[in-house]
Amino acid sequence: MASGPGDALPKELEETYAAQLLRNTPEYGIAWDLELWRVAEQERFSRELEEQRKKVLAQWQGEWDVALQSKEKEFTNRKQELEVLALRMQSSTAALEEREAAVAVREKDTDRLEQ
């Protein structure tokens, strides 16, 4: 029989047919299953990694909050200590000014008596 131009399959059909034959092989099925497994494992790994990242960030945030509260408490305590010291200094300064005024009065009295 003579083969004519109509006997040959178009290139697209040949490629489609070859791809279909390849997909029907056990090796292709195994490769496909492995690819599906790989994608599933990658997604699982990404989820676990994201969960772990969130846990670590939450832990760091908790530690940061505790440290910040501690620093704020320490700051408040130091501020109160300084306010108490400032009041004591004002009181001491006022007492010293009163003493100086009393000494000045006595000096004037002494100077007046000496004259």
Query: Beta-sheet strand percentage?
Result: under 5%
Q: What's the helix-strand series?
A: HH
- Oligomeric assembly: single chain
Poorly predicted parts: none
Tell me the distance between the termini: 158 Å
User: What general outline do the C-alpha atoms trace?
Assistant: rod-shaped
The profile of the biggest β sheet is: none
Helix proportion of residues, in percent?
over 70%
**Number of helical elements:** 2
Number of strands: 0
Instruction: Please tell me the total number of domains.
Output: 1
Structural class: mainly alpha
How would you state the average pLDDT, rounded? 90
What is the alpha-carbon Rg in Å? 47 Å
InterPro entries: CEP120-like
Structure in words:
InterPro entries: CEP120-like (IPR039893). One of its GO terms (cellular component) is microtubule organizing center. The protein has 115 residues and is an all-alpha fold. It has one domain (12-114). The protein has two helices and no strands. The protein has helices at 11-23, 26-114. The model has no long low-confidence stretch (mean pLDDT 90).
